[in-house]
Amino acid sequence: MKKIKWVVPTFYIIFLMLPIYWLLNMSFKSTTEIINVYSLWPQDFTLDNYRTIFTDSTWYMGYVNSITYTVFNTILSVSAALPAAYAFSRYKFLGDKHLFFWLLTNRMAPPAVFALPFFQFYSSVNLFDTHIAIALSHCLFNIPLAVWILEGFMSAVPKELDETAYVDGYSFPKFFFKIFIPTIAAGIGITMFFCFMFSWVELLLAKTLTATIAKPIAAIMTRTSSTSGYELGLLAAAGSLTIIPGAVVIYFVRNYIAKGFAMGRV
Amino acid sequence: MNKTYNQKAWFFVIPVFVLVAFNAVVPLMTVVNYSFQETFGSNVFAWEGTRWFKQILHSERFHASLGRQFIFTFIILLIQLPLGIAIALTMPKKGWGVPVCLILMSMPLLIPWNVVGAMWNIFALPDIGFLGNSLNSLGFDYNFTQQSGDAWFTTILMDVWHWTSLVVLLSYAGLNSIQPAYYQAAEIDGASRWDIFRYIELPKMKKVLTLAILLRFMDSFMIYTEPFVLTGGGPGNATNFLSLDLVKMALGQFDLGPAAAMSLIYFLIVLLICWVFYSLMMKNEGRT
Question: CA Rg, chain A, in Å?
Fold first, then answer.
């Protein structure tokens, strides 16, 4: 029984890795080889695709841009969501339930719907083509999610913790930063993971709100494919590199994921 | 938990409220504004009342893409939820296998959506893609750019690849929160594997599964980037989902009025379904 259990996750992981392997495989081939030869590994191994990306600033700046706004958005979303989630988990107040659901509704607005109005709105407040614009616009779907996840974690912390701290003479800010935040550190880790994830993978808004200065890597990839035909090798290399920041983030939060998920309050 | 009444809690909520309202109110009102007007370019508008709404609600094209959207979302939920729960149940609970599984399974979630589309396009191409080539050499007549059945198969397989891990991660979290005492009690009572799942694990996973279902419903119902890159809505209109159709109308034909009306109808459908589901699931939680 113990042995059989491994089969399902193993097959699932193999299934997950196959397309990623295929992308990596292509990134080490030249475009002519990709089109003309079908092979399970590169026959003519080349690093040219990666060299192009790391030497051409229009390419590598895309990664810098994407990481900049993603990190900014993650910090912004989590720090705004922390007090709000605390309020939702500890207090009743006028319109709390409606506010909570209203926040969630913003997660439900199809980004395709809002692309054009967002462009007009951010142009009119002179934020078009800045990292701040994308970071702010991603708050639309990341803050509701962050509040939701954090509220779950905070509700799992017994209220006695707050009360004991007050009895011991802690002021609210001191309690919040010294005791409460360390208690839910795992939850914050998970929340940051989700915020990073959804901001990193989103393209439609990021593409709409930028022209040149803050253009994300994913948008640079679409542009390149349309102007100079399909440079499949280059595209595969650029795609492979987009996996790395995510992998780094997972590596850093892996303990939080295990621990936080053990709390079971996602 | 006993919550105390405290109106000052609003101060804690203000930053979130401001940030979200900043993004939500003006763009939403812009869409509402467009939906009742006709544009002639260069900022000339004329009042049209509910004409666009009537037009959209009666249009065959809208019915068709809405239908496709519902079928797609239904299939996605039907596959991903049981599969995700099954994988979470069979995942290792401790040891080195845990981080390995978590890290590898999270990978697809962290790849930008258009890269996912491009990746699957390359992967599924009948001549140079692994999937397409393998299927064809096994004797299947597979070509997702020509046959609509294959296009659906590929889109669904891509979404299963992309998002099942989210269900896995959330279910795994729910399963881990169950105290060992429950299992011991079940063992003493001689409960079968199915009983344990039905009466202990499933109720304990209720909250995370609610989140999983809501997220999967929203995201699969609003899917845009991946099928846009993978199939572009084709062949013909076979995989022309609601959001693809909407963007074609808004940006391709620049019909702002009808596109805005369609956006609002779209938004209201998502909102209504989520609200009904959320209320049902939260009825006993004292939150709604």
Answer: 22
**Interface with chain A: mutation pick from B7, B14, B23, highest number of A CBs within 10 Å:** B23
Could you give the CA distance from residue A241 to residue A246 in angstroms, rounded to a whole number?
10
Pairing assessment for the beta strands A91-92 and B37-39 based on DSSP bridges: unpaired
Q: Note the pLDDT tens digit of each residue in B118-168.
A: 889 888 888 888 888 888 888 888 888 888 888 899 999 999 999 999 899
What is the distance, to the nearest Å, from the Cα of residue A177 to the centroid of all Cα atoms in its chain? 25
| Cβ count within 10 A of residue A163 | 10
Q: Which two tokens stand for residue A39?
A: 């092979």
Rg (CA), chain B: 23
Distances, alpha carbon B262 to alpha carbons B249, B270, B271, in Å: 9, 12, 14
- Over residues B43-52, mean pLDDT: 75
Nearest CA in chain A to B241: A112
| Distance, CA of A252 to CA of B30 (rounded, Å) | 41
Total-model pTM: 0.86
A139 → closest Cβ in B20, B26, B131 = B20
Measure A160 CA to nearest chain B CA, in Å: 11
Residue A42 zone, left/alpha/beta (φ > 0; ψ -120 to 50; rest)? beta
Which residues of chain A register pLDDT less than 50?
226-228, 264-266
Both tokens of residue B86?
Answer: 């099954």
Do the Cβ atoms of B104 and A96 come within 8 Å?
A: no
- By C-alpha distance, the chain B residue nearest A24 is B119
Rounded distance between C-alpha atoms, residue A237 and residue A219, angstroms: 15
ipTM score for this prediction: 0.84
